[in-house]
């Protein structure tokens, strides 16, 4: 009988296995980067803006009335508001472009000194929002509703219904701005700007500001002038870039290990190709 002795004892095998596991855990903990080197990054924020002419105006308008009793205030308000809505429809606005946005009835109080507040009447308010797509006629429409009895106009909000393309232009401008900032910072730091690691669109929540107008300013002779101007769409992006430092040990390691483009191999290197005229030797396998 022949007995074979193993040079490894169970305790030695366990130690060897532990070394392999420890080595694997260390490799996972290494920072990600080129050839195991840590990657330096640069975070920047870019701002962008694009402008476009509006093609829609949203106006909030209505009637406010006051009377001694609540019923009388509501009755007066209903009559004036009905006349305003009829005038809007007569001016060419479709019913789907007229929407009630607020209806309020509140007591009016007299706050005298050294006594409890006293109710002296009631105030009723009925507001509607209208959408005017023909902006050139907006001044005419405003004059019409004031003449019909509207005594409150809270604001004009100019919009663009197909604003998606303009918003995309603002995003492109924001990306260009972020890349420009990153390039300047990298040059100032003496490093090269690498690839984009991460990019994200930031919701600023800012839209075009409405133009506020008061009813008292609309009864001027010659009609109400309205200048729509242009809408400004803004965008903000956050970008993370990799940085390349050619003077670091990692960059030196990269230059030594990476192929040098299309340069031919050194003389005498076996590339595996058969030279012209060289006999082909069959594979012994």
Automatic annotation (TrEMBL):
Annotated stretches, region: Disordered: 246-285
UniProt keyword Glycoprotein present: no
Gene3D superfamilies on file: Protein of unknown function (DUF541), domain 1 (3.30.110.170), Protein of unknown function (DUF541), domain 2 (3.30.70.2970)
Any one Pfam family match given in the protein's UniProt record, by short name: SIMPL
Keywords of this entry: Signal
Keyword field contains Signal: yes
GO biological process, one term: DNA damage response
Endpoints of the signal sequence: 1-27
Record InterPro entries: 26kDa_periplasmic_antigen (IPR052022), SIMPL/DUF541 (IPR007497)
Name of the protein: SIMPL domain-containing protein
